[in-house]
Design a protein that fits this description.
By secondary structure, this protein is of the alpha/beta class. It folds into two domains: 221 residues, 3-Layer(aba) Sandwich (Rossmann fold), CATH 3.40.50.10260; 280 residues, Ribokinase (UDP-N-acetylmuramoyl-L-alanine:D-glutamate ligase), CATH 3.40.1190. Helix content is 44%, strand content 16%. It contains 22 helices and 19 strands. The strands form two sheets. The chain has a twelve-stranded mixed sheet, with helices on both faces. A seven-stranded parallel sheet has the order 4-3-2-5-6-7-9, with helices on both faces. Helix 14 links the parallel strand 14 and strand 15. Helix 20 crosses helix 21. It is elongated, with a radius of gyration of 27 Å. The two termini are 39 Å apart. The protein binds ligand NAX and potassium ion. Potassium ion binds next to strand 5 and strand 6. GO terms for molecular function: ADP-dependent NAD(P)H-hydrate dehydratase activity; ATP binding; kinase activity; metal ion binding; NAD(P)HX epimerase activity.
Length: 521
Amino acid sequence: MKVVTGATMQLMDKRTIEAFGISGLTLMENAGRRCTEAIMAEFGSVSFRKAVILAGKGNNGGDGYVIARLLMEQGWDVRVFIVAGSDEIAGDAAINLQRLDTEIVTFCPVTETLCQCVTSLANATLVVDALLGTGLKSEVRGVYAEVIDIINVCGKPVFAVDIPSGIDAGSGKVLGKAVRAHMTVTFAAAKLGNVLYPGAELGGRLLVADIGMPAEVVTEAAGFEFVDYDAAQMLLQPRRKQAHKGDCGHTLIIAGSTGKTGAAAMSANSAVRAGAGLVTVAIPASLNAIMEVKTTEAMSLPLPDADAGFLGEAAYDPIMAVAAGKASVAIGPGISRNPSTSVLVQRVVNDLDQPLIIDADGLHALSENREVLLHRKSSVVILTPHPGEMANLAGITTAEVEKDRIGIAGDLSAKYNVILLLKGARTIIATPDGEIAINGSGNPGMASGGMGDVLTGILAALIAQGYAPFAACKLGAFLHGFSADLVAAEKGEIGISAVDVQEWLPYAFKKLSREALPMHF
Ligand SMILES: NC(=O)C1=CN([C@@H]2O[C@H](COP(=O)(O)OP(=O)(O)OC[C@H]3O[C@@H](n4cnc5c(N)ncnc54)[C@H](O)[C@@H]3O)[C@@H](O)[C@H]2O)[C@@H](O)CC1
Ligand SMILES: [K+]
């Protein structure tokens, strides 16, 4: 699904009107009609049908007037409250306002005029939020903020036009105060504010409506890819019926140290569950016995131990030897932050030419010597930081990362010529040539240790199976979250463990597959 900023949507509107001769009035009519259809689909069968429409002074309000007219045509009782004076409404919105019976319209430019609105809401079937859309420019204050409070406490289903009022369409952030909607109908393409948190949560169920914008305007607009179920399904490749393990790739995972053998085991076992043909997990020799127990399908490879259960430079030669011919190499989960381990990671990342996935303590090692990324031999490097690791890599604070996740991920990806997968609620995947994908799966139950190790294993396995790097990251991030969603559907969100997500991966693949189940004769 395509996602754009509010500013891009305004350019798309402009191009549609100027280059294709489709008027703003037509777009507004279509927008209002699509919203009305969605309302009728949801509430058309209720016996008492009263809509209270709260409109702002701009075109979002204009959509609200169209909805008012069309719902009245369907026999609804409609009341429109406009948070502005009558002289403030202009353009297409004014034309649609004139089409309404003046008796149903009340202007509420100041707080004192809001009591009628509150009274009217008491017996409403639903409230339509047409206060502010992509034109929101600043923090919501004054009478707009009070109306948002009224909407949020009224206890009625809330239908948001384009985006919940108060959400910044370019970031999903709440500008001062925002409406909490049950459902949002957005137009032509989703806005970032519809899919990024907290906007995504405040919008409720999202529908993207076709308002007659030419397909080329939508496809050619600068934007982002939202990886939802349909998009992930398109990425999943069927496996050849004659496939053998040699076709499915051999991945090497270099991981683990004393106290963190679980990270190595989860990465290795997740690579198995994500379909790698063969998995070798390279660990410090003193941990081999426990690794043999924690992994069954994966082969463990004991490496020279620097001391009590961590790797140092003595492991460099054996790693280079065993990595030869591997389809992918993952390095970092639980590998420790010992100085000698960090030096080893830096040398290995510098010298290996296999596709690399670098996570966790591996990223810490790179933060201490970022130049390695510029001098490395491998043409495919995927970094999978969480916001704290990203902050270290970029030399900024975690708060700064969270302020502009897409921008920071994009910048670092271009700077180091790597695919940057920035984890979090709505994982961002950035490529050096400027592509950005946003993952749509996952749930708060994933906020627990080990989830990143599972993702590393999934990515290592997908790359080993021959997926192109960007496709592997999009599909891998989706499967990771989708598997957790399947676990949550069964067990609930709280208490989900990373191993649960690992073990549900085959079900996630199965649910995503377009293939019929194999028939056995
Ligand atoms: N041709 C078009 O441009 C179309 C626009 N459409 C609708 O129009 C919306 C965008 O319309 P507009 O650009 O008129 O803007 P909005 O209707 O989103 O904003 C309304 C007005 O609020 C003001 N404003 C900004 N921040 C504010 C704040 N914090 N507090 C109070 N007022 C604030 C702005 O100055 C603007 O005049 C879209 O979200 C969509 O709903 C649709 O009708 C489809 C076609
Ligand atoms: K709105």
